[in-house]
Predict the structure.
Amino acid sequence: MSHNENPFDASPAGHPPIGATVLGYPRIGPRRELKRALERYWAGRSTEDELHATGRRLRERTWLELRDAGLDSVPGNTFSYYDQVLDTAVLFDAVPERFRAAGLSELDTYFAMARGVAGVPPLELTKWFDTNYHHLVPELAEHTRFALVGDKPVAEYRQAAALGVRTRPVLLGPVSFLLLAKPSPAARPGFTPLDLLEPLLACYGELLARLRAAGASWVQLDEPALVADRSPAEIAAVRTAYAWLSGRTERPALLVAGYYGELGEALDPLARTGIEALGVDLVAGRAGLNRLVATPALRDKTLVAGVVDGRNVWRTDLDAALATCATLFGTAGAVAVSTSCPLLHVPYDVTVESTMDARLRSWLAFARQKVDEVVLLGRALRHGPDRVAGELAEVRATRQDRAGAPGLRDDRVRARLAALRPEDARRGPYPRRAAAQRAALRLPALPTTTIGSFPQTDAVRRARAALRAGQLDPAGYRERMRAEITRVVRLQEEIGLDVLVHGEPERNDMVQYFAERLAGFATTELGWVQSYGSRCVRPPILFGDVSRPAPMTVSWAGFAQSLTPRPVKGMLTGPVTILAWSFVRDDQPLATTARQVALAIRDEVRDLEAAGIRVVQVDEPALRELLPPRKRHRRDYLDWAVTAFRLATSGVADSTQIHTHMCYSEFGDVLDAIDGIDADVTSVEAARSGMAVLADLASAGFARQVGPGVYDIHSPRVPDVAEIAELLRAAVRAVPGERLWVNPDCGLKTRSYDQVEPALRNLVAAAGQVRADL
Ligand code: GLN
Ligand code: ZN
């Protein structure tokens, strides 16, 4: 350790200081260049070389941009053709046999693991921690033999070095890699991926040596899995891993980054190993600051202070960030400044948002602006805040402007919230509701329905684009949508479904559609964020108090209902999902924002009821996504999430049936909440897990109606009647028939009609068969 007086310029012996950095950067391309290149390649319209050329251009652009912006340390290996967890599996040869047997090129094997190929199902795709990014789940077994067969991190290090940028390669850490993996079906019972720690470490050790030989002075090992509650065995694995890796002599200096929360019980064991630096999330994990200050083992480390929020889009309070860094000065041997997590979850650049309100834009920082914030903080720490007084004052002024801006506060919304009573979030007793709904709806046993969307045809997409481009007037657009709704209603009648939907042709996205119609939200033009592979989303920005100026869906649902005597189900997105898939305001508790959104949805539910809609579905596919990583924070979250749903849906008569839909099949941590939201009917993903979810629900005492998905819409396959009937018979064994619904796993919008039509016919036929033997 050099004894520099300024801890910002200090560093462990022999290594350059980290200074100002970011933990990672977006990779899909500022104009989604990678998405386009991938989809062209998958469609057979470009060569492997062309794809690689795009990848290389994007990487080079990122390195140069980050260096030229003034970062002291530029992260490397943040690029991926699909997913960093998949990259790690392939790097260490953890490729299940079914993909090797397919006899594909290296690149196509990689894509087969992500997307499957004829007859070979892909790895499972699942949520990356509490974000809306998804990663692939490596499959491991006791016979998995890790070997360092790839060289992506080294090759990319060399490419950057050739351009004159000495990067800090970012690797997924060994403990998180194993905790994110699952035992393959071939694994012996009792095997857990952590059993493979030792052989995996040997491969990491070899990789570190190669990176060192290539010239890398630092490596970043990401361990986000450590911000969740971990067992003593898992903490022991952390100790083993980093004691061993830091004990290698041929290696770069090690920065271990734990983000999306606080390191908690993993902090001290990590700090006691020989790693050189620790990256901590001081935004989501702000509560961990005291623990950091009380950890003497940090005295000979660099603490990389993640003070710039990597997940939200507001400009940072730089005064507060500097104060946080100052607190750490006495704690660590050196302090560097960074983002709280990689910048994967924010769009590239807010300055390209030319149609956004200029005042709103001035309050925002996307990835590129966050880099500038980190650089500015670095200058303040290095030379003292006086040297950047002008810039700090400007940031202070925009933050003050935001705090006082009109449009953020709506006194009517505030008054309504203040006047809420507990009974506003309570409906009548379920048995009374069920009886009223039976009388109102007169449905058969095992009623059939869908989850809402029907395939989005090219004609529908073209009409939406034409409306946006001004080539189609609103009346012409309405006519086309009505024609589509009519077609979809007639089709459902003809197939024989019991509860119909209008098909959602008018919706671009289940959150954006509502954000465009609610006060308090803004949308972006180019604010794309990777969700998985080539899939991107454009989260709206929730900046102010939320209200609903006018009905949002009533005319579409009402029109659909006017076409048919069968009940048409109104279709809304729930408050928790709207928050989860938006950038939310950071100036009030999320629970308050959730209640505001809930009241706006409540207005819509009541208007649907008033328009003659007897069944309303409020989708909450993201309920589980926002679950905090640490158990002790969960109760609080689930309380406000459940309250928000109930507020949204409790304004209607007993006879109005409330449905909800959730797209996952593991309910372990949210079973109580699913019961607590008190929907009359809950539809869930279940086909792939063979109805296992029903046993979970039954064991939790869930006593209302449930629609386990019997048609896996994530696959192009059309299930036949016998197969669906078998799933239904399994369902009838787990849940009394009078509480069961028959429906697909999720919305149909990503499928085509030649798949959906026969599948729905089979679903109706299977329901008929099973109904006959009830
Ligand atoms: N109603 C939505 C649809 O059918 C639900 C989508 C979802 O669950 N993600 O598309
Ligand atoms: Zn779904």
Notes: The two ends are 76 Å apart (CA to CA). The chain is about 40% helix and 10% strand. The mean pLDDT is 95.
